[in-house]
Design a protein that fits this description.
Strand content: 25-35%
Helix content: 25-40%
Largest sheet: 6 strands, mixed
Order of helices and strands: EEEHEEEHHHEHEEEHH
Structural class: alpha/beta
Strand order of the largest sheet: 6-7-8-3-9-10
Distance between the termini: 32 Å
Number of strands: 10
Shape: globular
Length: 235
């Protein structure tokens, strides 16, 4: 079953197409990686999925309803590349505020903090945190309320290798519980953590396959080389 179904999605910016009649689906209860060079349209696609992007044509269906429908607000968690928290509030105050907005139980605050390894930071002002710590606070807000779908735009940027490893393990655990995750990344070694991979180039879908399938398709054992081979073929 598809958690996300996209048909002929077209998005223009400045009179030029960013997404060009894109069609794809994202399987429910799996970790799907969204990969591609800078400017390929990854962030634009994610904004369309959460319903905050003006589209020129096509349809985006999320959890069975049109993207951006009010009922999806509590069912979809979204993390942008820029931290989306209040810098003049503490970490705990931020999470308690967003928990109230979502109608999430107070206990979900501690659970979310533990998942992103921010225990002990509850009373720190968000504005005093490092970039990587701020990104983790934003991720924690998306985990509140047990969303059915998580749309994460480069959630591991600026994090050390140990934390990146732990977050991917957490993503896998969420998928095992039935949560659907769409995760964009420019770090190709993270692709092996995904059940399926979507590769974008210039607003078009170049590949939709498993990591093993991409290796077999390109004859490359290294996913970096596999992606380069696909991009060069599509050029």
């Amino acid at each position: 079953m598809a958690a996300i179904a996209i048909e002929e999605l077209t998005v223009n910016r400045g009179g030029a197409p960013v997404l060009k009649g894109l069609s794809l689906s994202v399987e429910a209860g799996a970790v799907t990686g969204l990969l591609g060079p800078s400017g390929s349209g990854k962030s634009t696609l994610m904004r369309a999925i959460v319903g905050v992007q003006i589209v020129a044509g096509g349809t985006v269906t999320v959890l069975g309803v049109p993207a951006g429908a009010p009922e999806l607000r509590k069912r979809v968690g979204y993390v942008t590349q820029a931290p989306a928290v209040y810098l003049d509030l503490t970490v705990a105050e931020n999470l308690r505020y967003f928990a109230r907005v979502l109608g999430a139980p107070r206990s979900s605050v501690a659970e979310a903090l533990a998942m992103v390894d921010l225990g002990g930071f509850e009373n720190r002002l968000a504005g005093s945190l490092s970039g990587g710590q701020l990104s983790r606070v934003s991720l924690a807000t998306a985990l509140l309320g047990s969303p059915e779908l998580l749309v994460l735009d480069e959630p591991t940027v600026g994090l050390d290798p140990v934390l990146r490893r732990d977050l991917w393990a957490a993503f896998a655990a969420l998928a095992e519980r039935g949560v659907t995750l769409l995760v964009s990344s420019h770090v190709m070694d993270e692709a092996d953590h995904c059940d399926r991979l979507l590769l974008l180039r210039d607003g078009e879908l170049v590949a939709d396959d498993t990591p093993a399938g991409l290796r077999e398709r390109t004859g490359q054992t290294d996913l970096d080389d596999a992606f380069l081979a696909l991009v060069e073929v599509s050029a």
